[in-house]
Amino acid sequence: MTADDPALAWAADEKRRRRRRLLIALAGVVACAAAIVALVAGYREVDFPEIERPLLWRVTSPAGKTSYLFGTIHIGYSIDELPKAVLDSQAEAAITVLESDLLGKAPAGSRPAARSERLRPEEWKALSELSGRPVDELQRFDTPYLLGAALVGASPRKREAMDKGLQKRALELGKPIEFLLVEATRGEQALELMPETETLENVRQVLANPERIRNYLQSMINAYGRGEESAATALPLLGILNEAWIEPIDDYMDEGGAFVAIGVAHLTGDHSIRTWLERRGHRIERWPW
Question: What is the pTM of this model?
Answer without folding.
Answer: 0.78
